[in-house]
TrEMBL record:
Domain of life, per lineage: Eukaryota
PANTHER family noted in UniProt: IMMUNOGLOBULIN LIGHT CHAIN (PTHR23267)
Lineage: Eukaryota, Metazoa, Chordata, Craniata, Vertebrata
Entry protein name: Ig-like domain-containing protein
Annotated SUPFAM superfamilies: Immunoglobulin
Chain coiled-coil ranges: none
Pfam families xref list: V-set
Residue span, Ig-like domain: 1-77
Amino acid sequence: MSCTASASISNRRVFWYQQKEGNPPRYLLGYYSDSGKHQGTGVPDRFSGSRDDSKNAGYLTIKGVLTEDEAHYYCAVWKDDKHSDACL
């Protein structure tokens, strides 16, 4: 799935979150580059990120989609790699 920003995502991280019905959002991953990525705690590696700076777009790929993956997915773009698995 894709997430397109209204401004440049260059030098920014793209973060992805999953929210299942009745639950708070869960941090999935943060993606800057193949060598600059962070997988959330307990998130399977079938969830992966990529990006296309020329389109101001981030992408979330789920390999071998399962019924348990049914959820709303959200992205966020931020200037650094600060993140938290905590739900406030």
